[in-house]
Design goal:
By secondary structure, this protein is α/β, with parallel strands linked by helices. It has 18 helices and 14 strands. The longest helix has 53 residues.
């Protein structure tokens, strides 16, 4: 049963590897890929053929030494020069084309997975899944899967597949030579005379069958240890990146000691696992090096009696040693590459899990918002958290051009989640949503690329779509006139600017693009009331001029005066189908007083 189980696991692993490998060789680059693969295969076969010729050269060369035949000696040296030159050319192009295939395959796979990771908000949904009940099964650190694991997978897959091909062809080529050179080995056991043809072939097979089995037993923990090492290294690197990203907040909170503790904890897991990896590799090295050292003298020990008896000459002895060495290399391929095989297995498992989750997301159909409407129409909307807790059930929302609506509720009631659902990026929802054309969402934490200010302002559109006058006008309209002369400065704007400046830059992006409908999630929470009032006035003027609408999330009571209606997320009684329900009321504050320019 154990053998059947192992065979089943090996078969499943080969199927997973094939599934990861096949798309490239069926892609738009398939002829280049197949051509490179065929060339590398031909060069590998050519290198084995050259080794066969060099093996035969050993016999002739060493016989010339034993017979002191000068003419044959110089002739064979000349022949060796030609063989060596041909072998060097084959080896050089085999290495170059192999690395070229690895590079092109990596480039294609990286683009392939980047497209799928960024499509349909998969990158966002994978992060959300880490907070659900299946968080442990969710692939960690997708950035590492795409950057490191693909590189390791392509390199190891090419090198190992060519290595095993080379080993098989070498074994087939040299077993026949070794068989013919071995002669008949005779042995007496309890008075019975036995003759064994091709004794050295059988000895080599037995020797490396036992060695391979023991190697797998000794090195088997490397598979899981390599898998864990990649994971722990990525976790440690990820936390370092978070310290950089939130450097200001950590510094203000004097959180250095806590972060050091967290980093020490993650790095200790790296070191503990790495120490276990070192110990296992040490044990494996003890065994494998011992196997190879014994194999150096083994053919001489077995063939020495025939040499000293005069049955074979020095050339035949050296040819036997050379052929045995090639058979040894072929049979010991598993032993010699076990560490690399373990890394490849761990990498393939990580990529397979990543592929499974990406494929699962591609087959899901989260609620999407159609954008062919002139108004906002939401019917039968149900929204849940990643944990499965229902926030809303069968909700209905409607907004028309000219509306200004405030969405309110206690903290944690799901206001931002409702906005994400309206935007069509929240996967845990069902219902019908018709989103108005030309709508723009302002998140609580706006994103600005580390690029020039003009690129950060125009994001995600190219800055070339807008004139300098339009960019500067948007900054001035958003109360950032001091930035109008810095359009070409390249900065980390998410860290360079204060919270209020970041919010105003996000609003400048809105004024630049002039959408008809604006959904603002705490878009002015870091601003003073005067600036907030002026910016809301300008937002409303913009959307109403374009016959659109403004829907806001805000906690400040003063924001209500800029809106006509309120959607309130009210807590429902215990036992209800959802935690909250939506209630609509009109704003009873008098006309929008105070909406004047600064």
């Amino acid at each position: 049963m154990s053998l059947l189980k192992n065979m089943s696991l090996i078969s499943a692993f080969i199927a997973r590897t094939w599934a990861l490998s096949l798309p490239y060789y069926r892609s738009e680059q398939k002829w280049q890929a197949r051509g490179l693969l065929a060339s590398i295969t031909a060069l590998n076969l050519g290198s084995v053929y050259m080794l066969v010729l060099i093996n035969d050269w050993n016999r002739l060369f060493y016989n010339s030494l034993e017979l002191r035949d000068v003419d044959v000696f110089w002739l064979q040296l000349g022949r060796f020069a030609l063989l060596a030159f041909a072998y060097v050319v084959i080896a050089a192009y085999k290495l170059y084309l192999t690395q070229l295939l690895e590079m092109r395959w990596r480039a294609w796979m990286t683009g392939f997975y980047l497209d799928r990771w960024l499509a349909r908000h998969a990158f966002y949904h994978l992060e959300l899944a880490r907070f659900s009940g299946d968080g442990e099964a969710t692939p960690d650190n997708p950035d590492q899967r795409i950057q490191e694991d693909i590189n390791l997978f392509t390199a190891h897959t090419v090198s190992l597949s060519m290595g095993i091909l080379n080993a098989v062809v070498t074994l087939v080529s040299f077993v026949g030579i070794l068989w013919g050179l071995s002669g008949i080995f005779t042995v007496d056991v309890l008075g019975t005379h036995f003759e064994i043809a091709g004794f050295m072939v059988w000895a080599a097979l037995l020797y490396y069958a036992v060695a391979s089995g023991l190697t797998h037993f000794v090195g088997r923990p490397l598979i899981q240890l390599n898998y864990n090492q990649q994971r722990y290294e990525a976790d440690f690197r990820h936390h370092l990146m978070r310290v950089r990203e939130y450097s200001e907040a950590i510094a203000l909170d004097r959180g250095e000691a806590v972060e050091r503790t967290q980093l020490d904890h993650r790095f200790s897991r790296v070191l503990v696992n790495y120490l276990q990896l070192l110990k296992t590799q040490k044990n494996l090295t003890w065994f494998t090096v011992g196997v190879f050292q014994v194999a150096v003298v083994f053919p001489f020990v077995v063939a020495a009696p025939r040499f000293f008896s005069g049955a074979i000459q020095l050339g035949e002895l050296m040819q036997i040693a050379s052929a045995f060495g090639r058979v040894q290399e072929a049979l010991s391929w598993f032993v010699e590459n076990y560490d690399q095989l373990a890394t490849w297995r761990a990498t393939t498992d990580r990529l397979t899990r990543f592929e499974d989750h990406i494929a699962a997301l591609e087959h899901t159909k989260p609620t999407s918002a159609s954008i062919d409407s002139t108004a906002l129409q939401v019917d039968g909307l149900s929204v849940s958290l990643p944990t499965g807790v229902m926030l809303l059930v069968d909700a209905a929302l409607h907004a028309q051009p000219g509306d200004t609506i405030l969405l309110q509720g206690i903290s944690g009631s799901g206001k931002s989640t409702l906005f994400r659902t309206l935007a069509g990026i929240w996967p845990f929802s069902q219902g019908q949503i018709s989103l108005p054309k030309d709508a723009m969402f302002i998140p609580q934490r706006p994103y600005f690329p580390n690029a020039s200010l003009r690129d950060a302002l125009a994001y995600p559109s190219p800055s070339s779509d807008y004139s300098d006058a339009a960019l500067q006008g948007a900054l001035t309209h958003a109360l950032l006139p001091e930035l109008t002369g810095r359009l070409d400065e390249v900065k980390a704007w998410g860290q360079q600017l204060s919270g209020g400046e970041q919010q105003r830059l996000a609003l400048a992006r809105v004024f630049l693009k002039k959408p008809r409908w604006v959904f603002a999630d705490e878009a002015t929470s870091a601003l003073d009331e005067a600036a907030e009032g002026l910016l809301y006035t300008r937002l409303i003027e913009m959307v109403q001029t374009a016959q659109g609408a403004l829907i806001s999330i805000a906690h400040r009571p003063g924001i209500a005066r800029f809106h006509d209606r309120v959607w309130s997320l009210d807590r429902l009684p215990s036992g209800a189908a959802a935690l909250y329900g939506v209630r609509e009321t009109k704003v009873v504050i008098p006309a929008k007083a105070g909406m004047t320019d600064l």
